[in-house]
Description:
The complex is a heterodimer of chains A (537) and B (305). Chain A contains 21 helices and 20 strands. By secondary structure, chain A is α/β, with parallel strands linked by helices.
Amino acid sequence: MVIKVIDANKSLLKVSNLSVSFDTTEGSFDAVKSVNFDLNKGETLAIIGESGSGKSVTASVIMGILTCPPGRIKSGEVLLNDLDILKLSDSDRRKLMGTKVAIIFQDTLSHLNPVFSVGSQIAECFEVHKNLSKKESWEKAVQLLERVRIPHPSRRAKDFPHQFSGGQRQRVMIAMALALEPEIIIADEPTTALDVTIQAKILELLGELRDERNMGLILITHDLAIAAEISNKVIVLNEGKIVEKGITRDVFINPNHAYTRQLMDSIPGKIAKQKKKISKKFSDPILEIKNISKFYDTIACDDVSFNLFPNEVLGIVGESGSGKTTISNLILRLANPSNGEILFHGKNILNFNKNDLFNFRRKVQVVFQDPYASLNPTMNIYNIISEPWLIHSDFLHKKLHKSKVSDLLTSVGLHPDDAIKFPHQFSGGQRQRIAIARALALKPEIIICDEAVSALDVSIQAQIIKLLLNLRNKFSLSYIFIAHDLPVIKDLADRVIVMKSGKIIEQGAVDDVFNFPKEKYTKDLLKASPSIENLIS
Amino acid sequence: MRQYLSKRIFSSILAITGLFVMVFFLARLTGDPGHLYLPIDAPLEVRKEFSEKHGFNDPIYIQFGKFLEDLTDGNFGYSLRKERPAIDIVLEAIPVTLSLAAVAMSIAVVGAILIGSLAAYRPNGIFDRISRVVSLTAASAPDFWVAITAILIFSVSLGWLPTSGIGGVPYWIMPIGILVIRPLGLLVQVVRGSMITALSSDFVKTARAKGVKEKVVIFKHALRNGLLPVITVAGDQAAAIANGAVIVETIFGWPGIGKLMIDSIMQRDFAVVQASILITAIVILSINIIIDIAYAVLDPRIRHK
């Protein structure tokens, strides 16, 4: 990263004393509190913060798309080339949107209109602001798609958002933002939910375009490693307040504020290992996967074999479509393999009858990725956790349900009184704790965590990883931990399997694979994964 | 999509065939279908002669074969009252009903999109509150009562509009007005709901961030997405009117399919009833297929399935 020489007089954007509050039924809530920052040409400012820190609200204010009400701008000014956009009329402000500032959103599937072709959505920018004809606008849209390296742009322009992959959709979004050559691009979590190799390419493209057009780039992210990779200035937001600001390198090397330090410590890949040495020689595997394959329309999983030992954490990494989740579904017997065997304590689970399967289900539990979708919103926590005992009614006497729910809540770090609450009353991290408590209810031997921490903020992620490791020791569990995020695997797993297109590329002890990867694909993955160590060292 | 559509058309053909078979057997379930065709007070000799002439004394499979043969020739039987082929009478009535349905539904859909979208733009705003009360009232208004009241006011008291019959524009105003009320009220509510969802979608944010004008945001970006549920309900409503705007046609003396069915039932003109049922079924199934096509046109995700 080359630190640019900054011309102090040429401030593109200056946000001063910005405060935003939201009026809710429970009163007014301050989302952004007296925020100040500025941005110059060619600079990248990273706004770092966890969910609820006010980073996206700040972006909405700059873009003039804050929904008011419930949002309310209490004070402050946003100077764009010395023009306060908060004082402009709606129609004047609209003229700046897309032409001076443009935004790239996170979830491209929902942020692109599903019923219009991507070409027409990009072309619309020219029709709105430049009064170009439909034909001219379309040609320009095709050129932009070519610039962001969408293959066969003139054909692909006619396609609709759902026909593109996540990475390609993000490129379309970038093309749309670039259309009118804005001076500032705001990228709101542009690579969250993308695979690491795709993420690296998108970040590279953004950096390249910034330099090519000398734009100011505001990168909003929860991922410190990404901020470290491409920004030169950084502000850290916590609960709507800037707790730290400065040159990226300085902040990362020498964080002043306790919150920044806490964030730095939460970065996965650094958690002190509490791993027990496993003596494989003396224990038989609990689970043996032998040459399983699964064919849907495509090959989802191809001749995969591995073992899981007692008390072991086995990480499975791979990008989307690599077959990770297929394996989890096969082990859970939510789907049946096309070929191969799955042995649980030496018995093939594929031959289980209804009764065997019922008992097997107790022993293998699962924690899903999205804690918002995986808990039934109409059931309270007590009912969610105790439901497994109603199904497996011989497991626990009804009288004991209440005390057992309290025990489980305590062991996942929640309060027994939380039992009467409903899922919406909890944060994402707390919900994931509830999902873990539910998984523990039947005293399983194996818990499959399918991207169980991917949707969480870093500091929460670190807490959940610690919790999972503690629970492993306490309840002698084995985990199969599926993730696309390599540092998380490094923290948690004893052994790791690297998958690509349904095949196992490499497997071995975590330290070996991470420090001395043998295969090119593993090396590429590790290289693509952003890290702050490059910046600091 | 093409595969899906051909499947739908095939299953519609199956459904119609099933209906034909049902109509045939139902008519014979009660015994001699001659009873259905002839007036209650017809003398015994006439009945016998009639049964003989129409082959009602033949074994049922021969009758069924003949029935199918007639159908393929487009022969739906003969109206005893009007002494003409039943199908001709039905085919005269159906355009009247369809034009009523088309005009009424067009007004209801366009009106509902405008009112519903504006209401959804500021939920709980003054416009939204008024439109909610009015649309709920409209959706629950009993049309026979509205029709009679309207005739009392506009025809009897004020003398502005003709009480019944067909003719120029004045004859259309009251029947159309009454047919519009209920679908309009219902559709305003559907449009409002789906537009609130569409307007709070992320892609609306993207459009605003591009500097697109609010009018375009509502009527292009949000509306195209909000239309799907509206089409379903509008199709149902259109089918209901096509199925015979019985009350409106009867009250205003419109020679549509609804009035024809009521009259033929009253006059025990069974061939006409039978033909009406079959033709109406074809119309309704066609509306359903049109809805499917509209879905695919509006949403590429359905098109590409």
